[in-house]
C-alpha cells in the first residue's frame, strides 16, 4: 500500500517547484520524500497517513507552547469574525508594539512586517539610510531571510542544497555583502579596517540557529558591540529565532548585550506570518513616514496575525517558569542523548542553549559553519530517518537547530532518547 505522503508529494511536484513552498521541507539533505502534515496538537504532528510524530521543529520556532494552543486559537477565531484585514490602523497594533517594548530591552520604536525576511531586509535598509553607508558584514552560515543582499553564505537552506552563489542576485548587490566566519572577531576587525567608513551594519544571529545551534564565543558579541560603537556601525541582532525563545527579552536579555536594531519573526506571530524590526529611537526615526527610508506592507500588522502574536507573547510574559522549564527539558534531552551516543561510541557534539539544541556527529567543537559542515552529515541522514520511522520528527538537515516546545512531556523526551538507543551507525 503506498503512503498518502508519497501520493501527495507526487501531486505537489506537478504544481509547486520541488513540491514545497520553502526548500528545507523537501528533505533534500536527508533524502527520501517529505511527509505531509494533516494536523497538529500540543507536541505532536500527524501526517497524511495519520501517523503521529513527536515534533522537534515547532514550525521552526513559533510553537513554543505547543501546537493549536487554545488561547491563541480562540483569539484568532474571535478576531476572524470581525474581518481579516482593513488596510487601516488598529488598536491591536498598539497593544502588540507596547507589549514587545515591555518585554524586549532596547526597543524604542517597532514596525511590524509579515516575515522575518522583510524584517531583516528593512533593518538593513534603515541602517544604510541612517549611516549613509552601503556595505555590511554578515557571518558565514547565518541566515537572515532570502532578500538578495543576504543570500551570500546563507546557512541552512542553501548549505543543504549545496548552493554557494545564487543566480539572480546581481554582483553589484553581492559585492556590498562582506562575510566572515562566525565567532571570528579578528576577521571582523580586519574587514572593518579594510573598509574604513564604508560599513553600515553588522548583522548577526546572537545565537546562531541556521548551521545547527551555535553559541557565541565569550567576548564575541561584546567585541562586535565595541567595534560598532567605535566605527559608527549599526549592530543588528537578528532575533528571528532567538527572540521570545531564549528569554522573554530574547538573546539581548539573556546575554545582556544591546543591539542598535533587532529583528523578530517566528515566535512573534504564534504561527501566523509576522516579523518586526525595531530599536533605538534615533535610528527608527528614519523609517517612513517619519523619515525617508521607505518601508511598507499591505498586510503588515494584520489583525489576525496581531491578536495571535499578542496572545502568545502575553502568555510568555506572564509565565514566570516557562523558560526555566524549557531549559530543563532541553538539558534533560541533551544529557540523555549524549549518554546514548557515548555508550555506542558514536562521536557527537551537542550544542544547546535554552530550548535550542543540535546534534553534530564529530569529535570536535562546532563553533562556526566550517565546523558544522565538516561533521559526519551522512550519519545524520541515517539518524534522521531512523528517528522519523519511530515517530520522531527532527529538522531534516544537519544545519538546523531543533526547537523544543513546552507541550513536550518528559515521557516524550524519554521516547526520543530510547529511539536513539536503537540507532546503529
Ligand atoms: C527564519 C529566519 C529568518 C527569515 O524569516 P522568514 O519568516 O522565514 O522570512 C531570518 N533570520 C533568521 C535568524 C531566521 O531563522
From TrEMBL:
Residues recorded as bearing N6-(pyridoxal phosphate)lysine in the entry: 266
EC numbers on record: 5.4.3.8
SUPFAM superfamilies assigned: PLP-dependent transferases
Compartments it resides in: Cytoplasm
Keywords: Cytoplasm, Isomerase, Porphyrin biosynthesis, Pyridoxal phosphate
This protein's pathway: Porphyrin-containing compound metabolism; protoporphyrin-IX biosynthesis; 5-aminolevulinate from L-glutamyl-tRNA(Glu): step 2/2
The keyword Disulfide bond is annotated on this UniProt entry: no
Catalytic activity: (S)-4-amino-5-oxopentanoate = 5-aminolevulinate
Molecular function, one GO term: glutamate-1-semialdehyde 2,1-aminomutase activity
Native source organism of the sequence: Ferruginibacter yonginensis
Domain of life: Bacteria
Entry cofactors: pyridoxal 5'-phosphate
Protein name: Glutamate-1-semialdehyde 2,1-aminomutase
Name of the encoding gene: hemL
Subunit note: Homodimer.
Family per record: Belongs to the class-III pyridoxal-phosphate-dependent aminotransferase family. HemL subfamily.
A Pfam match: Aminotran_3
NCBIfam families tied to this protein: hemL (TIGR00713), PRK00062.1 (NF000818)
Protein's UniProt keywords contain Isomerase: yes
Main location: cytoplasm
Amino acid at each position: 500500500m503506498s503512503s498518502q505522503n508519497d501520493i501527495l508529494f507526487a501531486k505537489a511536484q506537478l504544481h509547486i517547484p520541488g513540491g514545497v513552498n520553502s526548500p528545507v521541507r523537501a528533505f533534500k539533505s536527508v533524502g527520501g520524500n517529505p511527509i505531509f502534515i494533516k494536523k497538529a496538537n500540543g507536541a505532536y504532528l500527524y501526517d497524511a497517513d495519520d501517523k503521529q510524530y513527536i515534533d522537534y521543529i515547532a514550525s521552526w520556532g513559533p510553537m513554543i507552547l505547543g501546537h493549536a494552543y487554545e488561547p491563541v486559537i480562540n483569539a484568532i477565531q474571535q478576531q476572524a469574525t470581525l474581518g481579516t484585514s482593513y488596510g487601516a490602523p488598529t488598536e491591536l497594533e498598539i497593544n502588540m508594539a507596547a507589549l514587545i517594548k515591555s518585554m524586549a530591552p532596547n526597543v524604542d520604536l517597532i514596525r511590524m512586517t509579515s516575515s522575518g525576511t522583510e524584517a531583516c531586509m528593512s533593518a538593513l535598509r534603515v541602517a544604510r539610510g541612517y549611516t549613509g553607508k552601503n556595505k555590511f558584514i554578515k557571518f558565514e552560515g547565518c541566515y537572515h531571510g532570502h532578500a538578495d543582499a543576504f543570500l551570500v553564505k546563507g546557512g541552512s537552506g542553501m548549505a543543504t542544497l549545496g548552493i554557494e552563489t545564487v543566480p539572480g542576485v546581481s554582483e553589484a548587490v553581492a559585492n556590498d555583502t562582506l562575510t566572515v566566519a562566525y565567532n571570528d572577531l579578528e576577521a571582523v576587525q580586519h574587514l572593518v579596517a579594510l573598509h574604513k567608513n564604508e560599513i553600515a551594519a553588522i548583522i548577526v544571529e546572537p545565537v546562531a540557529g541556521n548551521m545547527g545551534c551555535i553559541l557565541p564565543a565569550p567576548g564575541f558579541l561584546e567585541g562586535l558591540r565595541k567595534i560598532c560603537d567605535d566605527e559608527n556601525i549599526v549592530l543588528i541582532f537578528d532575533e528571528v529565532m532567538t527572540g521570545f525563545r531564549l528569554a522573554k527579552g530574547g538573546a539581548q536579555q539573556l546575554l545582556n548585550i544591546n543591539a542598535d536594531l533587532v529583528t523578530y519573526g517566528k515566535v512573534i506571530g504564534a504561527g501566523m506570518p509576522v516579523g518586526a524590526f525595531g530599536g533605538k529611537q534615533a535610528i527608527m526615526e528614519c523609517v517612513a513616514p517619519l523619515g525617508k527610508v521607505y518601508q511598507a506592507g499591505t498586510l503588515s500588522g494584520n489583525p489576525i496575525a496581531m491578536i495571535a502574536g499578542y496572545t502568545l507573547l502575553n502568555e510568555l510574559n506572564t509565565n514566570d517558569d516557562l523558560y526555566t522549564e524549557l531549559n530543563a527539558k532541553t538539558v534533560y534531552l541533551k544529557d540523555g542523548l549524549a549518554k546514548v551516543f557515548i555508550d555506542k561510541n558514536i562521536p557527537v557534539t551537542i550544542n544547546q542553549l535554552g530550548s535550542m539544541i543540535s546534534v553534530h556527529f564529530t569529535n570536535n567543537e562546532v563553533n562556526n559553519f566550517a565546523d558544522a559542515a565538516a561533521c559526519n552529515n551522512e550519519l545524520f541522514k541515517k539518524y534522521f530517518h531512523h528517528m522519523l520511522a519511530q515517530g520522531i520528527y527532527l529538522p531534516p538537515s544537519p544545519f538546523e537547530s531543533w526547537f523544543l516546545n513546552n507541550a513536550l512531556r518528559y515521557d516524550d523526551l524519554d521516547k526520543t532518547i530510547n529511539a536513539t538507543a536503537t540507532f546503529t551507525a
